[in-house]
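Researcher: Please predict.
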Amino acid sequence: MFGGDPNFDINVGGAVHKMLNAFLDLSRVVPTYNLLQGGVFHSYRHANLQATSLIDHFVVSDSLIKEVQGIFIVILVTITD
């Protein structure tokens, strides 16, 4: 299992998407984003642009994925004066 913030939106596609999928296949790991629950489906939000994306990724071995019951994104809100 590993995770990271490659600043890549999995829903966009393109060359990085193809390379990432090839790496996942060769490594026999699968992404967990299809197990997202709880109503929050983005890990980045730009308030001024009103834009969101899923850029943080966690993957597990293909033998471990069946043990994952769900993934939840927790949003931390900071209020400033």
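Model: The mean pLDDT is 79.
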